[in-house]
């Protein structure tokens, strides 16, 4: 029988003691670690404090907002990052990322040996997990801090997956200034998301965090290029890129250009972010290409606008009532025009823009036909006596003519017949509450005597374009398709649209095939200039005015807002071709039913004998056939002789109902007074002779 020697026994005892002690130390360390982890936990909740993004209908970035610390930091999805960047990052920063548990002992030993051999830092020993720990809990760079980072790294590895750790690291990594995270850096330095990066771009994004300020390409381009090239060399040596990619990338200097984070549709985007303070990314119905073009165009139009004046615009798609573009002002950041005020939502006087809806409701109630005869003359309604904008009256006109020429007296007459209360109820059934002074709706609302917003007017005209019904306007896809809003029947809406399609376009524009129906409006004191134009596909609503509600100098909806609306339609047509209406605007019969031949037959009979012009028509324009004065035929009818004629306020020796007179170029006023004192006037324009 063999016996172990005393030496062997002693060694065995020592080994056993070592194992016991090691086990106890390990157990105590583990318990201490778990206790430490319990009372001093590591979490990555800082990654939730990220910037917020509003997106367009195609998921492009429309508007970005900094986080609560005023930093650009966006959430990240590893699956949406260029995999070549991930490979390059791990090869450069942490080759054993997927195999270690937060601390890479071999990497640390290698870093120490390289430091001793080269007397400088050649490579770092910190893993990505350790770097994340330092980002979450910044500390001075000391040996004790490094030990704490190692413990923190173990904590992170205990509670989070590798994907979560890498995602958190790529969210918090600094890239210079207030830019943090891969997404923010890619948007800042390349103007794009990091889903498809070139080798050069990937290398720069890997190199930047090594020294975020010193390697910034917008400030230190040479240093940034050198840092990028070191990463490219590493990637080439390790077979991550081929020789062609390496040579191509190394031959190109890094760019010093930086990109602004998108700030399109600022008024609407700010409203969306304020109303939804939970979601980090919010999709909208806005079309980014249309929004961009209109913002650039609107800012370029600022030189046309009077001092302290701005414009607002809404573009809506008629078929689904979705908002395509939204401009709260022509320049959000201009303090001189209070650009921060969202004029789309401001309550203003609509001027004449509600007249089409008065007519549509009268059509709906079978009170008038587009070719019913109505008398445009000075009229009194109790203590209310409106006047036409021009202070001139046309006498016997059709309903269609009255709407096309925005005559005030016929509109008030028709509203009086329709009923003010019923009209307001129909309006509010579509647009919600409107502002009515003293909550008492009266006839002046026909001419703008109430308050509503550009948003509400857009809703009304979308309803008109959709043959009397529409869903509520919306800019969030989730809200679309709600209940239908009804203003009038389809035939009444079609009649109204047919009349508005026949309007002459603003000077310098062509309305091919009557594709665009539109109505202008001007409020009292020229404070508000409106034009709402619509095709079968889109509605464009334009407002021009001063946010402080000051008066403007003789600008009207037709002279100021209408050209802008037609220009906007031209831009829209280039991006999204506008369709023709499926029906001709001339579909209406010119012969109304017998019962609707006259709006008021009694008034018509009374007016039959009133003095009136046969020709020229109001605001006629003449072109000279030669170098001499232009001859104009003038004829009046009815009234009571003798007649007294005046040309430009000068009396003429004419006592008959027909004459021909020569006129120089320019503006002229023809006035005739009969023996009963009835007075009528006509303005004409003579073009300058071309000789």
From TrEMBL:
Sequence ranges assigned to domain Penicillin-binding C-terminal in this UniProt record: 607-681
Task: Supply the alphabetized keyword list.
Answer: Carboxypeptidase, Glycosyltransferase, Hydrolase, Membrane, Multifunctional enzyme, Protease, Transferase, Transmembrane, Transmembrane helix
Q: Name one GO cellular component term.
A: outer membrane-bounded periplasmic space
**Pfam family name, one:** BiPBP_C
Signal peptide: which range, if any? none
What's a Gene Ontology MF term here? Answer: peptidoglycan glycosyltransferase activity
**Every Glycosyl transferase family domain range:** 68-233
- Answer whether the UniProt record assigns the keyword Signal to this protein: no
Record field: transmembrane: 18-40
Enzyme Commission number(s) from the entry: 2.4.99.28
Query: What does the entry give for GO biological process?
Result: peptidoglycan biosynthetic process; proteolysis
Q: Which Gene3D superfamilies match?
A: Biosynthetic peptidoglycan transglycosylase-like, DD-peptidase/beta-lactamase superfamily
Which ranges carry the Penicillin-binding protein transpeptidase domain? 311-548
Report the catalytic activity: [GlcNAc-(1->4)-Mur2Ac(oyl-L-Ala-gamma-D-Glu-L-Lys-D-Ala-D-Ala)](n)-di-trans,octa-cis-undecaprenyl diphosphate + beta-D-GlcNAc-(1->4)-Mur2Ac(oyl-L-Ala-gamma-D-Glu-L-Lys-D-Ala-D-Ala)-di-trans,octa-cis-undecaprenyl diphosphate = [GlcNAc-(1->4)-Mur2Ac(oyl-L-Ala-gamma-D-Glu-L-Lys-D-Ala-D-Ala)](n+1)-di-trans,octa-cis-undecaprenyl diphosphate + di-trans,octa-cis-undecaprenyl diphosphate + H(+)
Q: Record's NCBIfam families?
A: PBP_1c (TIGR02073)
Q: In its UniProt entry, what is this protein called?
A: peptidoglycan glycosyltransferase
């Amino acid at each position: 029988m063999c016996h172990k020697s005393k030496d062997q026994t002693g060694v065995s005892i020592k080994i056993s003691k070592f194992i016991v002690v090691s086990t106890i130390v390990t157990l105590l360390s583990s318990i201490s670690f778990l206790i430490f982890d319990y009372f001093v936990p590591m979490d990555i909740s800082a990654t939730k404090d990220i910037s917020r993004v509003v997106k367009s209908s195609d998921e492009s970035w429309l508007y970005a907002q900094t986080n609560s610390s005023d930093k650009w930091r966006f959430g990240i999805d590893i699956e949406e990052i260029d995999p070549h960047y991930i490979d390059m990052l791990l090869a450069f920063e942490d080759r054993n990322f997927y195999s270690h548990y937060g601390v890479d002992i071999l990497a640390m030993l290698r870093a120490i040996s390289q430091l001793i051999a080269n007397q400088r830092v050649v490579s770092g020993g910190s893993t990505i997990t350790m770097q994340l720990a330092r980002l979450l809990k910044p500390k001075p760079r000391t040996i004790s801090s490094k030990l704490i980072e190692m413990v923190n790294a173990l904590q992170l590895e205990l509670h989070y997956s590798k994907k979560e750790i890498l995602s958190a690291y790529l969210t918090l990594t600094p890239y210079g200034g207030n830019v943090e995270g891969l997404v923010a850096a890619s948007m800042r330095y390349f103007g794009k998301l990091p889903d498809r990066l070139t080798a050069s771009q990937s290398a720069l994004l890997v190199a930047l965090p090594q020294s975020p300020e010193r390697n910034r390409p917008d400030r230190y381009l040479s240093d940034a290029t050198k840092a990028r090239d070191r990463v490219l060399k590493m990637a080439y040596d390790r077979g991550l890129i081929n020789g062609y990619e390496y040579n191509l990338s190394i031959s190109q200097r890094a760019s010093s250009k930086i990109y602004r984070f998108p700030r399109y549709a600022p008024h609407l985007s700010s409203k969306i972010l304020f109303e939804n303070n939970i979601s980090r990314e919010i999709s909208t119905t806005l079309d980014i290409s249309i929004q961009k073009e209109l913002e650039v165009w609107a800012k370029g139009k600022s030189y046309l606008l009077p001092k302290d004046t701005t414009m607002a615009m809404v573009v809506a798609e008629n078929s689904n009532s979705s908002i395509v573009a939204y401009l709260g002002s022509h320049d959000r950041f201009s303090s001189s025009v209070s650009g921060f005020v969202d004029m789309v939502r401001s309550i203003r006087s609509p001027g004449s823009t509600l007249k089409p809806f008065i007519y549509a409701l009268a059509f709906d109630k079978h009170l008038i036909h587009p070719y019913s005869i109505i008398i445009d003359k000075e009229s009194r309604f109790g203590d209310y006596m409106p006047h036409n904008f021009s202070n001139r009256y046309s006498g016997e006109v059709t309903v269609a003519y009255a709407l096309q020429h925005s005559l005030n007296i016929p509109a008030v007459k028709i509203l009086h017949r329709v009923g003010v209360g019923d009209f307001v109820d129909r309006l509010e059934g579509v647009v919600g509450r409107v502002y009515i002074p003293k909550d008492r709706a009266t006839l002046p609302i026909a001419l703008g005597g109430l308050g509503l917003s550009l948003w509400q007017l857009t809703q009304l005209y979308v309803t008109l374009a959709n043959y009397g019904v529409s869903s509520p306007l919306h800019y969030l896809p989730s809200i679309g398709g709600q209940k239908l809003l009804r203003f009038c029947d389809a035939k009444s809406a079609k009649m109204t649209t047919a009349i508005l399609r026949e309007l002459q376009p603003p000077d310098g524009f062509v309305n091919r095939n009557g594709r665009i129906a539109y109505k202008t409006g001007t409020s009292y004191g020229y404070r508000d200039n409106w034009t709402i134009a619509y095709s079968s596909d889109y509605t464009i609503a334009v407002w021009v005015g001063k946010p402080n509600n000051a008066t403007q100098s003789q600008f009207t909806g037709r002279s100021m807002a209408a050209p802008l609306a037609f220009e906007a339609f031209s831009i829209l047509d280039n991006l999204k071709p506008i369709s023709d209406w499926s029906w001709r605007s001339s579909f209406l019969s010119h012969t109304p039913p017998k019962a609707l031949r006259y709006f008021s037959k009694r008034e018509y009979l009374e007016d039959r004998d009133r003095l009136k012009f046969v020709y020229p028509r109001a605001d006629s324009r003449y072109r000279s056939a030669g170098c001499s004065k232009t001859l104009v035929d003038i004829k009046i009818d009815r009234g009571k002789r003798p007649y007294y004629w005046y040309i430009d306020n000068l009396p003429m020796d004419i006592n008959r109902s027909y004459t021909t007179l020569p006129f120089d170029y320019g503006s002229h006023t023809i006035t005739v007074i009969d023996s009963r004192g009835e007075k009528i006037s006509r303005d004409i324009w003579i073009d300058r002779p071309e000789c």
